[in-house]
Specification:
Length: 346
C-alpha cells in the first residue's frame, strides 16, 4: 500500500495554546484536520462563553489561507461554574463540550474541580442541555501511585458518574490503560474515549530506559506494554467509541528539558503519519479512517467531513524542533524518520 485516501479527519483533543504559539500549532493542526476540539487550559483558563469566543478569534487569525478549519471551543469546568453559564454556553451553539480537570492533575489544572460533589448541579445542567463532558481521568490523591491513577479514577469517579447521569455524554480523554479500554467497552453508548498517538506507539520504557526522555513525558504518563497493546487493539478493532484525540501539548524546549519538566508531547506536526504508522504496525490500516474521521463525528453528532486527505508512504525526517513563540518545541519523533507523509488534498 503506497497511498491512502481518507475522509478528512478531526482531532477531538488538542492544545493550541495562545499568543505567538498559535502561529505554529494552528497551521500544523489545520493542514490535517477539518475540526479540532480545543482544550481550554490556558492561564487563566477559558471559563466563559465570552472568553471562548475571543480565543476562537485568535485561533482563526492563524488558519492558513485555503485551509478549511473549524476550531470547536470548550469551557474549563471549575467548582464555581454555574448551571446558568453552561446552559447559556450550550444554547449559543458555540461551545462543543466542557472539560473536567481534577485540580492538580496536569498542566494548568490548578483551577480545576476539587471534588465531584461540588459539580453535581453543573453536570445535571450539562446532561439536560446534552453538552458533552470531557474528562481528564486521573485521581490526584497523593497516596495513589501515578501508574494507577487512571484505574482508580474509573472506580471512584467515572462509574458513579455514569450511574448518576445516564444521559450525559462523556469522553474519557487520552486513555492509557487496559482498564480504561474495558470500562469503555462495557459502558453505555454515552461514553467514549480518545487515544493519543504516543499511547499507541510508546510504552514507559520509551520514557525511562537508556536515560530519562523528557519529550516522552505526558499525562497520563506512558504505561506498560500490556496497556499499549490493549489500546492498539481497541483502536484497531473498529469499535465506534474509540477515536482520535492527539492531546498534542507543546511546551517550550527548556520547560521540558528541566529539573522539573512539564507534561505534554507535541504531535500536531505529524499526527496523521503517526497514527498511520501505529495502525500499519497493527495490520489495521483499513480501520484508520473510522478511528480518525468517522467515530468522533458520530459521537459528537456532527456531520462527517466531505473533503479528503491523502497519505503517501514516503519516508521523511521530522525536524529537530519547530519555533514556538520566542522559543522552540521539540516534536514527537524529532530528528527521526516517519514512513507516511501528508499528500496534497483533493
Ligand atoms: C497537557 C498540557 O500540557 O496542556 N499535558 C499533557 O501531558 N497531556 C494537559 C493534559 O491534557 O493533561
Ligand atoms: Zn490534553
Amino acid at each position: 500500500m503506497h497511498e491512502l485516501v481518507l475522509t478528512r479527519p478531526d482531532d477531538w483533543h488538542t492544545h493550541l495554546r495562545d499568543g505567538a504559539a498559535l502561529a505554529t500549532t494552528v497551521p500544523h493542526t489545520a493542514r490535517q484536520f477539518a475540526r479540532a476540539i480545543v482544550m481550554p487550559n490556558l492561564a487563566p483558563p477559558v471559563t466563559t462563553l465570552e472568553q471562548a469566543d475571543a480565543y476562537r478569534e485568535r485561533i482563526c487569525a492563524h488558519i492558513p489561507r485555503g485551509c478549511a478549519f473549524t476550531p470547536l471551543m470548550t469551557l474549563y469546568l471549575t467548582d464555581a461554574t454555574t448551571p446558568e453559564t453552561l446552559i447559556g454556553a450550550a444554547a449559543s451553539g458555540r461551545i462543543a463540550a466542557v472539560k473536567l480537570y481534577p485540580a492538580g492533575a496536569t498542566t494548568h489544572s490548578s483551577a480545576g474541580v476539587t471534588s465531584m460533589d461540588r459539580i453535581q448541579p453543573a453536570l445535571a445542567a450539562m446532561e439536560e442541555m446534552d453538552l458533552p463532558l470531557l474528562v481528564h481521568g486521573e485521581v490526584t490523591d497523593g497516596t495513589v501511585d501515578i501508574f494507577d491513577r487512571e484505574k482508580v479514577f474509573i472506580e471512584r469517579c467515572l462509574e458513579p458518574l455514569a450511574v448518576r447521569f445516564p444521559a450525559l455524554r462523556v469522553v474519557f480523554e487520552h486513555i492509557t490503560t487496559a482498564d480504561a479500554v474495558e470500562f469503555v467497552r462495557a459502558a453505555p453508548h454515552t461514553i467514549a474515549a480518545t487515544i493519543t498517538p504516543q499511547h499507541l506507539l510508546l510504552n514507559r520504557n520509551d520514557l525511562l530506559t537508556g536515560g530519562i526522555h523528557p519529550h516522552h513525558y505526558c499525562l497520563p504518563v506512558l504505561k506498560r506494554e500490556h496497556h499499549r497493546r490493549a489500546l492498539m487493539e481497541a483502536a484497531a478493532s473498529g469499535h465506534p467509541r474509540f477515536f482520535l484525540g492527539t492531546d498534542s501539548a507543546p511546551h517550550e524546549q527548556g520547560r521540558k528539558e528541566s529539573a522539573c519538566g512539564c507534561a505534554g508531547i507535541y504531535s500536531a506536526h505529524a499526527a496523521l503519519p503517526l497514527y498511520a504508522e501505529a495502525f500499519e504496525a497493527a495490520g489495521a490500516l483499513d480501520k484508520l479512517e473510522g478511528f480518525c474521521a468517522l467515530h468522533g463525528a458520530a459521537f459528537y453528532r456532527l456531520p462527517v467531513n466531505t473533503e479528503r486527505v491523502r497519505l503517501v508512504r514516503e519516508p521523511w525526517t521530522v525536524p529537530d524542533s519547530y519555533p514556538l513563540g520566542d522559543g522552540k518545541v521539540v516534536p514527537l519523533r524529532a530528528g527521526a524518520a516517519l514512513n507516511w507523509r501528508l499528500g496534497h488534498e483533493h
